[in-house]
Design goal:
Layout lengths: L2 E5 L12 E5 L6 H13 L13 H4 L1 E8 L19 E4 L2 H9 L1 H8 L3 H9 L3 E8 L11 H9 L3 H16 L2 H10 L5 H7 L2 H6 L5 H10 L12 E3 L5 E7 L10 E6 L2
Antiparallel strand pairs: 1-2, 1-8, 3-4, 3-5, 4-7, 5-8, 6-7
């Protein structure tokens, strides 16, 4: 059974209330229907326009992020991302996203970029997955995470880090999917002293190592660009096929967003 979190009855001038209460959905209700309901309430509409046939402004102004957390943890599911991820990736809700919802929870998680092994491992240790849907208009800083988009975004927060990224931008753009995955895998697990130099914008700005490998380690550990990241603005499946269109935004509390949460059960 899925759980959709809905707000209290909305204020006449706002589609959402800051207080969120849990409402259990009926068993026969699919993930797709829950997403439609959330989109409708996000937009303050009476019905979802066009649905799958003609993606419209109704859908394309909505973003989504899967939040992974332990429900027993204090403050669980209160932010779009954890403290170590100040700039979370979010997905655009479009026709491709809705088609994945129609196929089920696992299909949606894989489209967004989760691997099967990650989903199984995290589920086994009690981690829960919740889909947050919210208005993109609440995130004016959103940028497409292409290589150029990343540089632009990082430059606004750390010109020093952006300079190091620019040095290797051409190389990253020329690398194929397998090469990018190989490089990213090499920096997935690194010694503590190396991690300390790439774990944040502040740390990498002071790091004397501006090599290709160190820069990719910075992308992995500071910006959380996964091993499947290719810098084309889309998530990737494990086989390299293109996933969903993504955006990079600032970390913020869900209470500051017009949003809905849906409990995923992969």
């Amino acid at each position: 059974m899925s759980i959709i979190l809905t707000s209290n009855p909305p204020h006449p001038t706002s589609p959402f209330s800051a207080n969120v209460t849990a409402c259990r959905a009926m068993e026969q209700e699919s993930l797709l229907e829950l997403v439609y309901q959330a989109v409708v309430s996000c937009k303050g509409l009476d019905q979802a326009a066009d649905k799958l046939e003609t993606p419209s402004e109704t859908v394309t102004t909505i973003a989504a992020r899967v939040i992974c957390d332990h429900p027993q943890r204090a403050g669980a599911f209160e932010f779009l991302s954890g403290p170590s991820q100040p700039f979370p990736f979010v997905a655009k809700v479009n026709r491709k996203f809705l088609l994945a919802c129609a196929e089920g929870h696992m299909s949606l998680l894989q489209l967004i970029g989760f691997t099967t092994d990650e989903i199984k491992e995290w589920s086994a240790d009690g981690t829960q997955f919740r889909l947050a849907l919210f208005l993109l208009t609440d995130c004016p800083e959103a940028v497409s995470p292409t290589w150029d988009g990343l540089i632009h975004f990082v430059e606004g927060h750390s010109p020093e880090c952006a300079t190091k990224l620019k040095k290797h931008a051409a190389t990253f753009k020329e690398m194929g999917f397998d090469e990018l995955v190989q490089l990213a895998t090499a920096v997935e697990q690194i010694p503590g002293e190396q991690y300390a130099q790439v774990k944040s914008l502040e740390a990498f700005a002071k790091c004397p190592d501006d090599s290709l490998q160190a820069t990719r380690a910075f992308l992995r550990h500071a910006l959380k660009c996964t091993t499947l990241f290719t810098g084309d603005g889309f998530s990737r499946h494990q086989d390299g096929t293109q996933g969903i269109e993504e955006l990079l935004i600032r970390r913020r509390p869900l209470s500051t967003l017009n949003h809905r949460l849906i409990h995923l059960s992969p």
